[in-house]
Amino acid sequence: MPVVISFVSTKGGVGKTTVAANLGGLLAAFGLKVLAIDADVQPSLSKFFPVHYRSSQGLTAVVTSGGNPSADCISRTIFSNLDLVYSDTPDAALQAWLNRREDRLMILRRAMRSPLVAPYDVVLIDTQGAVGELQKSAAMAADVMVSPVRPDALSASEFATGTIGMLDELNRLADFGESFRSGDLLALINAHERTTNARALAAVLRQRFVGHAKVRVLHTVIPSAAAYAAAATARIPVHDFDRRRRFGNSAWNVMHGLAWELFPSLANVYAGAPQCSTGDTGTGGVQQGAVA
Ligand SMILES: Nc1ncnc2c1ncn2[C@@H]1O[C@H](COP(=O)(O)OP(=O)(O)OP(=O)(O)O)[C@@H](O)[C@H]1O
Ligand SMILES: [Mg+2]
């Protein structure tokens, strides 16, 4: 079964889509077979990379099939090994559909065990920056959640109350049985400015979750850098955009560090040269590390 990582936060604009897309691009460049699922009703991940094959259906079919999609739901990006389920729900229809289903929190988890998803090594699910049934379903589908946090007072406070509140709410379901327990939540400090204030907030965040049963702050810190927006504009993974600049904080180094922290079995694996093709040459198999 693939390793499933969902990108969640109850705050918008913290970097979920940026990190999901770039991690997906890097893992695919390692040779892993990656499926990126855009579970945000505002389809940002769907547009992040160019698509060379667009399937007839997307997220709606995955969800409304009850998590066992048989239809043509998988699009292919121009990058080898990187496929996409695009978001096709511009309105609140899918949330409303989910609200009527008693099993709504388990639907995407069921989809992760479906034959459609089985061929992938890693699935990355991007969500919207607000609490909703779709986001909760994506959270419950994950082996681990990654929650980018900007080191400013508002973001840190929203993380500590909103996002952790959502995690606590989900885990109350565990009263009904262990299979209802969510994965752990990994906070990822993103867009870190080199200021005393940012450093202090990052330190407070780390301190606050030491010894927490379900929450951990990742060692990797993504600095604030123009490369992330520039690579998104160029529609290429940021490690590739920054390929020639292998100094300490370059996106090349930082994204490799993040991938290695999440998947220690990939430590010292480097992205190969970019390959654009119809691609489906996954190597198969990745051991869980931080995601275990
Ligand atoms: N490390 C970074 N350095 C500089 N800019 C960044 C960084 N990470 C993200 N950004 C920028 O921040 C903006 C918001 O990022 P992104 O869209 O990924 O956030 P999001 O959490 O997915 O937002 P939403 O909740 O609206 O889906 C984008 O313009 C992106 O380019
Ligand atoms: Mg987003």
From TrEMBL:
Pfam families according to UniProt: AAA_31 (PF13614)
Record SUPFAM superfamilies: P-loop containing nucleoside triphosphate hydrolases
Source domain of life: Bacteria
Residue ranges of every copy of the AAA domain listed in the record: 4-156
InterPro entries cross-referenced by the UniProt entry: AAA_dom, DNA_Partitioning_ATPase, P-loop_NTPase
Full protein name: ParA family protein
Organism: Paraburkholderia sprentiae WSM5005
Lineage: Bacteria, Pseudomonadati, Pseudomonadota, Betaproteobacteria, Burkholderiales
